[in-house]
Predict the structure.
Amino acid sequence: MEHRPLISIEGLARRFGDSSQPAVFENIWFGVDKGEFCCLIGHSGCGKTTILNVLAGLDSPSEGAVIVDNREIDGPSLDRAVIFQGHALLPWLTVMGNIAFAVSSRWPKWDRTRVQDHARRFIELVGLKGAEDKRPAQLSGGMKQRVGIARALSIQPKMLLMDEPFSALDALTRGMLQDEVLRICADTQQTVFMITHDVDEAILLADRIVLMTNGPGARIAEIVVNTMPKNERHRNDLHKHPQYYAIRNHLVEFLVNRSKNFDAEIAGMNYDPRRIKLVKPGLAAVNPPAEVVPFRHSS
Amino acid sequence: MKASLGLRAGLLSLLIFVAIVGIWQIATLPTAATGPAMDPEYAKLVGAAAATGTKSSMPTPADIGATIWKHLADPFYIRGSNDKGIGIQLAYSLGRVLLGFGLAALVAIPLGFLIGMSPLVYRALDPFIQILKPVSPLAWMPLALYTIKDSAISSIFVIFICSVWPMLINTAFGVGSVRREWLNVARTLEVGPFRTAFKVILPAAAPTIMTGMRISVGIAWLVIVAAEMLVGGTGIGYFVWNEWNNLSIANIVTAILLIGLVGLLLDQGLAWLAKLVTYPE
């Protein structure tokens, strides 16, 4: 039997209105492996958020299906936690209340102390110890998003779905939170699917970056494998990594030019939406001509 | 240094009060008897001094003060069916308002929930609500008297019917406009419909529902006076009408002030409750 990833997106299409309307995206096929951090990049309007909502079970596709753990999803599930773009905390509850709400939804039989102990662990994990009794209105944007992350992690889902989770934050806070997400996901071996339009964020966090063309009729152009090892990715000296610019230039080139001319690019070529090309632009940068290689490993 | 805004506003209020009382006092000063000859029947009715014009039948501020003091000193006496203390009359009215309002809340809030959550129910009930809402609650009175055959319950029904609309509409609006993302949070956490209703929708809509309740209780307090004037027997509305028949302006003014005061307390009570369920975003 063929290897099937944890999340398998098979022939997805979504059109708004009746079937005569052009699809926002169609014929989308890709998978996310267990333990993998997968980013989806594309311009606004290509249907990124719709794909995430379908994965979350909040929206249903016009065609195709999403298979998770060999079962087609037909609605939201506690196995797939969502971190919303606008944090979506319940403003009448405290930090503890928001997370306890999620925990007691996951384990309805737990008593109050057990729920709170469990919630407290995740509040500490995201560095919000001491803010348990604060309401969302008393928190900064970054702290709110931390609560959102803690809430998603606290139900110990099989995968995390993040919809541009850091886009509403200032650059400094965003950087700090990216580091924490990287750390937490590495520690917990979490499977993550994240939407972003920030190229650097994708390079920092993702193992694979799925590139989506412009809508309507958006499709997956290719999948960039992030060949920079996880332990070599640090936000502050990312730009010093030998592979960084090769990957970054490839992504920027795609977003600036290729995303809108992709149909012309594949004209006459055998583009198969089910077998998306994997590219590794980072390796080209560190695999110089053969004669140089011995020098690098001589010491 | 400038005094605080509150202090200055208080001083201005006092000044306005003194001015009103002053003008009132001047307007009700006794005048020399120069008026034309009076119909003796009328003279008998309003008293000789007023009829001859030496004293206005409008009481002076001092008269009112004395009347208020008299009522407040002994608010709960009962001396026959037409002579009860003003406290008793207010208590009758308050009881009717709270009963009618409470029943209305029991009907309007669950029904409003249903309307807010179901576009089908909303569309189906909308014509009824739109037509019945603008009807003066007193127009229901004959129908209520005919079917219920009890004037006390009829007045409670009138309170019920006038309090129901603002609560119904506000609840439906509050429930219908709960933010999509909060509902999505509940959906992704696989929260059941009842838990979603009580833990997400109700707290989210609570401030709007409370606003509806506050409007309702205000209207109910307005309507009870008119309703009691119609049905008679007891209550502050009946008291006002009775004192009009007695031509006791001082008692009427006292009742007006007390009606205002109780209305204020009702409004403030609900405002305080609303504050408890309001959340900053």
Q: What stands out?
A: Chain B has two domains: 5-58, 86-277. Chain B has a mean pLDDT of 89. The first helix of chain B runs from residue 5 to 27.
